Amino acid sequence: MQLTWHDTCDGIDWEQLSDLYRAAPLGDKPPEALRTVFGNSMFVCFVFDGPAMVAAGRALADGVDCAYICDVAVLPAYQGQGLGKGIVSALVERARGHKKIILYANPGKEAFYEKLGFRRMRTAMAVFENREQAIAWGLLE
Ligand SMILES: CC(C)(COP(=O)(O)OP(=O)(O)OC[C@H]1O[C@@H](n2cnc3c(N)ncnc32)[C@H](O)[C@@H]1OP(=O)(O)O)[C@@H](O)C(=O)NCCC(=O)NCCS
């Protein structure tokens, strides 16, 4: 397996990224929305096996205080081989110097992030556009 790692959005096929999230699965994320959110993220990470995109993630950051990691996903056939860990570690490394690096895990994925040094926040709160869905997914009380 010859993997290549990319840390810019140059040449990214957003349809391919959308397919990756659907397969992972991490939901239905339209290509144009992905272009916007990745384009607005200070740190991005993509992994390719030849022409196939097999893993991705990004972090929003303000350059000093706070970085927020999101959209971390690995194609099912490539899961369990250290790629998720590699993506998160690369984003954490690039965000080093920020006072805090935060994220919220999909329910069931908390232990994955705990292994990478993340700890539960006692006072994390959020406003979700679709509150009922966030409750149904187990993200909100
Ligand atoms: C969660 C995900 C990104 C993990 O990526 P991965 O490449 O399969 O994970 P890795 O192989 O890098 O695992 C790193 C470590 O975390 C552990 N781990 C992975 N998934 C885990 C889970 N769901 N629960 C607990 N531990 C987990 C691995 O056993 C490994 O442990 P080790 O270092 O002691 O060997 C991947 O399963 C995925 O894309 N899932 C679907 C999308 C998703 O839910 N993304 C997360 C959004 S919050």
UniProtKB/TrEMBL annotation:
Its EC number is 2.3.1.-. Keywords: Acyltransferase, Transferase. GO terms for molecular function: acyltransferase activity. It is an enzyme of class 2 (transferase). It holds the Pfam family Acetyltransf_1. PROSITE patterns: GNAT. Residues 1-141 form the N-acetyltransferase domain. The keyword Lipid biosynthesis does not apply. It comes from the Bacteria. PANTHER family: ACYL-COA N-ACYLTRANSFERASE, GCN5-RELATED N-ACETYLTRANSFERASE 2, CHLOROPLASTIC. This is GNAT family N-acetyltransferase.
